[in-house]
Amino acid sequence: MQFLQITWLHSLRAGNVHVESITYSLFLKPKIRMPASCESLENFVPFSVSVRENRHGLPRIVLPECIHFATLSTLYKIMAKKTKKATLFHTETHEEKKKRIKAILRALRKDIPQAACALHFRNPFQLLVSTILSAQCTDERVNKVTPELFRAFPTPRDMAEATTEELIDYIRSTGFFNHKAKNLKACCAALVEKHGGNVPSTLEELTALPGVGRKTANVILGNAFGIPGLAVDTHVTRIANLLQFTDTRDAEKIERHLAAIIPKKDWTEASHLFILHGRKTCIARRPRCSECVIARFCPSAQSP
Ligand code: SF4
Description:
The protein has 304 residues and is mainly alpha-helical. The chain has helices at 20-28, 38-44, 69-83, 88-91, 94-111, 124-133, 139-152, 156-161, 164-171, 177-195, 203-207, 214-224, 234-242, 251-261, 267-280, and strands spanning 2-4, 17-18, 32-34, 50-53, 59-63. It has 15 helices and five strands. The strands form two sheets. It has a three-stranded antiparallel beta sheet with strand order 2-5-4, with helices on one face. A two-stranded antiparallel ribbon has the order 1-3. The longest helix has 19 residues, at 177-195. It is elongated and about 55 Å long. Iron/sulfur cluster (SF4) binds next to helix 13. Iron/sulfur cluster binds next to helix 13.
């Protein structure tokens, strides 16, 4: 019995991919029990590959030329299931991740040329309020209620002095209105007391405001101040995991993992692209892999 661990994607190259060198290292960290003979290994893999013995008598897998990344990922997923843990995140080198995400962002840019914040706003204060309201609510719904809200309470001071009930009248349809109204009041009071009624432009100051987490703070930085910010929402979390650029649901860690491989100047745009890709194609529970422009770079791509 030989052993194989899923580190072979590490050596993914265009054209003829020889997994030989990988299989050596794989044997050092056994995870999956593989059949010893070439014939049975040939049966094990879910697509046509040639398997030969190398000079040490170990199986050597030669993948066909022009092999599609999605096909590779099929094998990867089957193996990942067996190990109960996806390992591309741990095995792909930093440079390989950087190259892959660069290609992904290039493909997404072509697919979604106008990627931008979907919330309507005229200044940092309006974006801050809209982002707080957008929790568990669609941007479209928020955009419907904010014009009236900003007409009634145009400044942080106006909103801080409003009663919770008055605010609820305007924001009820965005859901969780009690909580959101209290957050808006408290946040605006802090803006007035600590920042002279202005929205601060640093991550530390923004996250110190009531109801403002890292995601909201990064949205404000990136879209209201033009300071690169990687906002990690549910779409970014899902897609970063599917693409195996991370292996956690912890937003702060995901932000760190992505920030390490995406050029800083592209952080804001990358958030938009992932969010819009998540709404349009990589939809939770029913991703449209067959029409996905980044399927060839995605180890989670489903075969049609
Ligand atoms: S739609 Fe499919 S191929 Fe595209 S990113 Fe999502 S899981 Fe990957």
